[in-house]
Amino acid sequence: MLSWNKKLSFLAIFSGALILLAFGLVLFYAPVEQNMGVVQKVFYFHVAAAWLGMLGFLVAAVCAVLYLRKANLKLDAVMASSVEIGLLFTAIANFTGMIWARPVWNTWWTWDPRLTTMTIMAFTYIAYFLLRRGIDDPTKKARFGSIYLIIGFATVPLTFFSARLLRTIHPTIFGTAGTGDMAMTPAMYQTMGFSIFAFSVLFALLLIVRSRLRLNQQWLEEQEALEQEEEFGEVANG
Amino acid sequence: MADTFNYFVAGYVVIFGLLGAYIGWLVLLNRKIQKKISEKKRS
User: Fold this and answer.
1) pLDDT tens for chain A, residues 1 to 238
2) B4 and A39 in contact by Cβ < 8 A?
3) Which of A83, A101, A117, B4 would bridge A105 by S-S if both were Cys, CB 3.0 to 4.6 A apart?
4) Closest to A156 (Cα-Cα) out of A69, A86, A63
5) Minimum distance, in Å, between the CA of residue B24 and any CA atom of chain A
6) At CB < 8 Å, which residues of chain B contact A?
7) Which residues of chain B neighbour A209 with C-beta distances below 8 Å?
8) Domain definitions of chain A by residue range
């Protein structure tokens, strides 16, 4: 039976190889889009990052519901880690979107419904960490955090459907066609699908690693609290 | 076709830069926590 560290090392190598392969597909397999030029190739990792960002917030919301039922602090570690990784991928999606928009829309930023809702979503989840910092008691922190994440999850479908239901210039890849859509060849769809798969494996790896680190941090905090209690007891007993 | 190669490079520098920075931070955090844990177990 392999140890956890060896399993994680294998997963890390596998994930790295998948990301490199996905990048290889972006460079050499996917064709260059005729109107936008080579900057369109940023879109493959941009879409994958946007999806994984939302997946991170979904995982956090599911863990939040489970925490309210079971009150297990391991779930708190997973939900906080999932939000953190979700924010990382959301940041990647936002920055790459801006870089793509500059030559295509002739602006770095516009208050388009998709961009606006995505920003609201990102700030909602940044505020989650501010809330956590404001509470010392671990169970209170987890309980209030869970309630916040369940309510905050409303921003995720709002962001996802904003490009489908509202007037927007943001392209829609899946579902209802919009005005700004790009025509995609099978090679483009295959590259995008593989990129999403590669990012999903990376997401799983990061979530496991970060959750384990958070659990170790929790253990250290518990030990420090116990030591402080012992010291206080000794002083009180004289 | 528009020449957008610089934006393409910038896009992937941002992607790999952010991912690399986060993974690097996780490695440093892991080292720090492992050091603290081994100190606690020794004491």
Assistant:
1) 668 788 999 999 999 999 999 999 999 999 998 888 899 999 999 999 999 999 999 999 999 999 999 999 999 999 999 999 999 999 999 999 999 999 999 999 999 899 999 999 999 999 999 999 999 899 999 999 999 999 999 999 999 998 888 877 887 766 554 455 667 889 999 999 999 999 999 999 999 999 999 999 999 988 888 888 888 777 777 6
2) yes
3) A101
4) A86
5) 12
6) 1-5, 7-8, 10-12, 14-15, 18-19, 22-23, 26, 29-30, 33-34, 36-37, 40
7) 26, 30
8) 37-232
Nearest 10 degrees: Cα torsion B22, A150, A49, A209: 40
Burial class (CB in 10 A: 0-12, 13-18, 19+), B20: exposed
Q: Is A124 left (phi over 0), alpha (psi -120 to 50) or beta?
A: alpha
Is B26 in Cβ contact with A42 (below 8 Å)? no
The reply to whether ipTM tops 0.85 is yes
